[in-house]
Amino acid sequence: MSKRSKDPCKPFACAIQDCLNAKNFQESACVDVIENLNECCRHWKHKSLVCSGMLIGPAEVEKSDVKSDGTSGVEVRKA
């Protein structure tokens, strides 16, 4: 019988649930914890079931405003 390896990002997913429960499900209060999972998934997405289906981009995000000509304020992610 083969030994199953632990999912390296599972503790981060559990930490998100704990944070959301403690903060009355206010995502804005758990941004740092969510980013920790994103960082783990950037590194382990090929080995983590927790990360399957997640769209993970580079770490830093800059937001621009919607312009008066109707073009969108796209989030630009920087590495």
What does it look like?
The chain has 79 residues and is α+β, with helices and mostly antiparallel strands. The chain has a domain at 9-51. Helix content is 34%, strand content 10%. The chain has helices at residues 10-22, 31-44, and strands at 60-63, 75-78. The chain has a two-stranded antiparallel sheet with strand order 1-2. Helix 1 (10-22) packs antiparallel against helix 2 (31-44). The chain is globular, with a radius of gyration of 16 Å. Residues 61-66 and 69-79 have low confidence and may be disordered.
Q: What level of helicity do the residues show?
A: 25-40%
Q: What would you report as the Rg, rounded to the nearest angstrom?
A: 16 Å
Largest sheet: 2 strands, antiparallel
Number of helices: 2
What is the straight-line distance between the termini? 41 Å
Secondary structure layout:
Layout: H1 10-22, H2 31-44, E1 60-63, E2 75-78
Antiparallel strand pairs: 1-2
Keywords:
2 helices; alpha+beta; globular; 2 strands; two-stranded antiparallel ribbon; 34% helix
